[in-house]
Design goal:
Layout lengths: L1 E5 L3 H14 L4 E6 L2 H10 L5 E4 L2 E2 L2 E2 L1 H5 L7 E5 L5 H4 L4 E6 L4 H33 L15 E6 L2 E6 L3 E7 L2 E6 L4 E4 L3 H7 L5 E3 L4 E4 L3 E6 L5 E5 L7 E3 L4 H8 L7
Parallel strand pairs: 1-2, 1-3, 3-6, 6-7
Antiparallel strand pairs: 4-5, 8-9, 10-11, 10-14, 11-12, 13-14, 15-16, 16-17
Length: about 260
């Protein structure tokens, strides 16, 4: 197994390297990187490792910036002196979150966890490659590859991957720090995107960000009711189980979108 360590404190990096050797002498540490800049350069010039150990607070910022730039596909075990970043850590491909000084038994457990779910991360990468391949296929409307907007998603159902086309999607909904794709038949699937990312990937003539929790297909909106303070209350199909509101500020844009005038002011 090949790994790298992202850590700006030399004693901490040296100690972690010794502990890794004690837990599993076969693990090869390819590099110790002390900054976001150094890590970014390394990822541009090298194949991704099997696993990353990363501190969070580095000399030139938070290591989350490395992963936000989409340079990294490897799973991460975070090591830090602070527990305030735990929730953000698990929004990236995090295996575990270890507080310094890292204890031998905790490192052992984290590596065992990685080995247990390693195949899932490999399957996620295959999923992304297959999605890219599906998106390159000719669309039914023009017979040419659609280079602008995402047309299909691959979702997990058990041990299988299931393709879902744009026309099968009712909406994307955030729940408990996760994003769920809901099909028109009401079935839900976890997707590895944020709503902000999906807004950029999907056709704005077809999908609209109703509020902080919902990104919906135009076909999903069944009824629109005036609500308090200029808001709009929507009836979606399938129903979300919660009240769906569009803010007063967003209501005019939403109405234009429903009339097929997306992007017009």
């Amino acid at each position: 197994m090949k790994t790298i360590i992202i850590e700006d404190e030399y004693p901490a990096a040296e100690r972690l390297q010794r502990l890794i050797g004690r837990v599993d002498p076969t693990i090869e540490v390819l590099a110790v990187l002390d900054s976001i800049e150094a890590a970014g350069k390394w990822f541009e010039e090298n194949r991704p490792p099997d696993l990353i150990f990363s501190d969070i607070q580095l000399s030139d910022g938070l290591s989350f910036d490395i992963f936000r730039q989409n340079l990294v596909t490897s799973p991460v075990i975070f090591t830090t002196s602070y527990d305030e970043y735990a929730i953000r850590a698990f929004k990236v491909k995090s295996i575990d979150y270890l507080l310094k000084p890292v204890k031998l038994e905790e490192l052992h457990e984290a590596l065992a966890k990685f080995r247990a779910i390693r195949h899932d991360f490999a399957r996620d990468e295959r999923t992304q490659r297959m999605e890219a391949l599906l998106d390159s296929l000719p669309t039914a409307t023009n017979g040419r590859p659609d280079k602008k907007y995402k047309q299909r998603f691959l979702v997990k159902t058990g041990e299988q991957l299931l393709p879902v086309t744009e026309e099968e999607i009712a909406y994307f909904l955030t729940a408990n720090e996760m994003v769920l794709l809901t099909r028109t038949d009401g079935k839900k699937f976890l997707v590895d995107y944020t709503l902000e990312q999906l807004e950029k990937l999907l056709n704005p003539e077809v999908f609209f960000r109703l509020n902080r929790q919902l990104l919906a297909h135009v076909r999903t909106v069944r009824k629109i009711h005036p609500y308090f303070n200029g808001k709009l209350k929507l009836q979606l199909s399938p129903e979300t189980g919660e009240e769906v509101l569009v803010s007063r500020d967003k209501a005019p844009e939403f109405k234009r979108w429903m009339e097929g005038q997306a992007g017009e002011g």
